[in-house]
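Q: Given only this backbone (386 positions), what sequence would you predict?
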């Protein structure tokens, strides 16, 4: 008895702030352990997680088209197939036109490079450097020797690139396969996940939170499409003004690349500069380069923070920091997924913390499409409780 009393007194002597801090800390440690396990699983199953996430983004982009076709009387399976094949055909057509243009202009590019090399050779001999022919030959010989010594490195790099390409194609097939079933059976998959993982007493609220999260994802995709459209308009008008052929095709390519923050615009902008160099010459290519850099700066510092932040109800600083952190942690994939993941979590938490008697009609990410399934889910939940 005395020992119990001494223990009770000893516990009471611990300051309340310390007890509260200890309780909070062990709960934070438990949450950190769960997050660490989830991150470990995501890294271990990187290919599957990435393919599923990309398929979910594409489903948010293409789902309105499927719903429109279903509303016209088309079976859902056929509607999903039509939208998927149509999207692939559009992307493939744009890429084919760009690659064909570059290949057709390669002879002219080779001729321009030859003239540039000859002009550089003359400048080195007769310019300020006044290099002799022997010095030029010696430098060329050193360059050739360096390339020969790096043959093994170049070969291994080519093999690594081939392996990466094979992995990319495998991931692409997985994305397309997953996307088709998301478009066809998205609601059924979500209902199954709810029944397996969520207790019946809170299933309706979690269902509403999930639907609002998907609505936020759709809003993000629409805002990203708006940003991509502005990027494409800037590059398309600029290349047309300079006189670059296929400016509409280049604009379409920039539109597709803009869905990958920073990296996509850089890659597609490089293609536009290359096409300008092949078809119109060095000076127009420099002008196109200046246009691309300006569009990228406008996208990264103005369009994305403001438009995306308004669409998904996130502060512009959160958008910039999220994209930057995602790019540092997981490269281009992290940059693509950072904002949608943040938007989904934001919408879900906002929905789950509301009381039963409150409504969320003021949430701009809510849509009529999300409200109808939510009502049916609540009805089914009440039936189960009976």
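A: Predicted residues:
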């Amino acid at each position: 008895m005395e020992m119990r009393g001494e223990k009770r007194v000893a516990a009471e002597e611990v300051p309340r702030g310390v007890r509260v801090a200890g309780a909070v800390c062990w709960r934070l440690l438990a949450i950190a352990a769960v997050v660490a396990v989830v991150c470990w699983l995501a890294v271990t199953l990187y290919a599957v997680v990435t393919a599923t996430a990309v398929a979910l983004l594409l489903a948010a982009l293409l789902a309105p088209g499927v719903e429109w076709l279903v509303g016209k009387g088309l079976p859902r399976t056929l509607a999903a197939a039509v939208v998927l094949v149509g999207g692939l055909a559009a992307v493939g057509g744009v890429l084919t036109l760009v690659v064909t243009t570059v290949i057709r202009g390669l002879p002219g590019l080779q001729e321009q490079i030859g003239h540039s090399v000859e002009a550089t050779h003359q400048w080195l001999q007769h310019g300020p450097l006044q290099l002799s022919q022997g010095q030029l030959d010696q430098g060329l010989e050193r360059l050739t020797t360096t390339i020969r010594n790096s043959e093994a490195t170049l070969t291994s790099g080519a093999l690594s690139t081939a392996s990466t390409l094979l992995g990319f194609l495998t991931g692409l097939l997985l994305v397309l396969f997953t996307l088709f079933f998301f478009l066809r059976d998205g609601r059924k998959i979500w209902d199954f996940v709810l029944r397996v993982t969520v207790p019946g007493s809170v299933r309706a609220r979690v269902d509403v939170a999930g639907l609002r999260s998907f609505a936020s994802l759709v809003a993000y995709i629409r805002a990203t499409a708006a940003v991509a459209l502005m990027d494409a308009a800037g590059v398309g008008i600029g290349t047309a003004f300079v006189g670059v052929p296929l400016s509409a095709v280049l604009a379409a390519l920039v539109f597709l690349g803009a869905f990958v923050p920073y990296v996509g615009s850089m890659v597609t902008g490089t293609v536009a500069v290359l096409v300008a160099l092949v078809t119109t010459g060095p000076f127009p290519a420099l002008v196109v380069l200046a246009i691309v850099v300006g569009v990228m700066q406008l996208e990264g510092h103005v369009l994305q923070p403001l438009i995306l932040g308004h669409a998904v109800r996130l502060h512009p600083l959160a958008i910039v920091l999220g994209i930057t952190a995602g790019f540092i942690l997981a490269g281009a994939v992290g940059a693509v997924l950072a904002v949608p993941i943040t938007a989904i979590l934001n919408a879900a938490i906002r929905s789950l913390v509301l009381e039963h008697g409150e409504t969320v009609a003021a949430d701009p990410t809510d849509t009529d499409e999300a409200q109808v399934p939510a009502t049916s889910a609540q009805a089914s939940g009440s039936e189960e409780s009976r």
